[in-house]
Design goal:
Helix content is 17%, strand content 40%. By secondary structure, it is α+β, with helices and mostly antiparallel strands. The protein has one domain: Lipoprotein localisation LolA/LolB/LppX (outer membrane lipoprotein receptor (LolB), chain A, Clam). A hairpin with a 3-residue loop joins strand 4 and strand 5. It is globular, with a radius of gyration of 21 Å.
């Protein structure tokens, strides 16, 4: 009997797996994937205090289409609904975002400039104000919007369960979502604590398809006091005015 060459057998197996994974009769939106997203969002909204450390990567597209990737970290401490401390650090900048329920401060630590403005009484309202009035997107703000009316599920045009996966030793389920302008993936921890463990977002409006990713480590019982959310300007720091501007600024960059 003639034996099928190994390379041919491997190609046939690959074609079989590809066709099995992407059946044409599968629905564009898997209800199970949407339900998993809703469950995760609902659980996040039950958390009254948490700390999450994110390891991030961001692509920058040059004029000639070449991509540069920058790695960084975001250390987030939240006391819901009105306490937030975010420290971001990468090879281009280091910033501290502080909110105590009354004031918001943004401190550029390497330049030693800071700006303080009056703030509304919840983290959600703060995020909306910063985006609408100052063009500032708080780092990892989706962690505070999943499970709220601001998470617009009608924008999702494709949803798929991509199967189990392990992120940093934690068993997760991998889901893939599609919207008009972005594709995004999320890995949700299995079990009683459906936390997001990793997110990858691909921008489709740029031919280079730049990506943003974040991998999360969670602490659901952080130790802190009120001083963690207040800003005491260091000696020599220069206060500047936070301009009321509609120009886009993304704090993740």
């Amino acid at each position: 009997m003639n034996k099928v060459p190994k390379i041919v057998a491997a190609l046939l197996a690959s074609l079989f797996l590809t066709s099995a994974f992407a059946q044409p009769d599968q629905p564009a939106i898997d209800p199970g994937a949407i339900a998993a997203l809703e469950k995760m969002g609902g659980y996040l909204r039950t958390l009254k205090a948490f700390r999450v450390e994110a390891i991030t990567t961001n692509d920058t597209v040059l004029e000639d289409g070449q991509k540069l990737q920058h790695e960084g970290t975001a250390d987030i401490l939240a006391n819901v609904p009105n306490g937030l401390r975010i420290h971001t650090n990468n090879d281009r900048h280091e910033r501290l975002f502080l909110y105590d329920g009354k004031e918001f401060t943004l401190w550029g630590q390497r330049m030693d400039y800071y700006a303080t403005v009056d703030a509304p009484d919840t983290i959600g309202k703060l995020a909306d104000m910063l985006e609408n009035k100052y063009g500032i997107n708080l780092p990892q703000i989706d962690l505070f919007r999943w499970g709220t009316p601001e998470m617009d599920k009608t924008a999702i045009v494709g949803a798929m369960d991509a199967g189990p996966a392990v992120i940093d030793g934690t068993t997760c389920q991998h889901y893939v979502f599609r919207q008009d302008d972005i594709d995004w993936q999320i890995w949700i921890q299995k079990g009683d604590y459906p936390l997001p463990r990793k997110v990858v977002i691909t921008t489709k409006t740029d031919d280079a398809r730049p990506q943003h990713s974040a991998e999360y480590q969670w602490d659901l019982a952080p130790s802190f006091n009120d001083a963690a959310f207040t800003f005491n300007p260091p000696k020599g720091a220069l206060r500047v005015v936070l301009e009321d501007s509609r120009s886009s600024y993304d704090a993740n960059e």
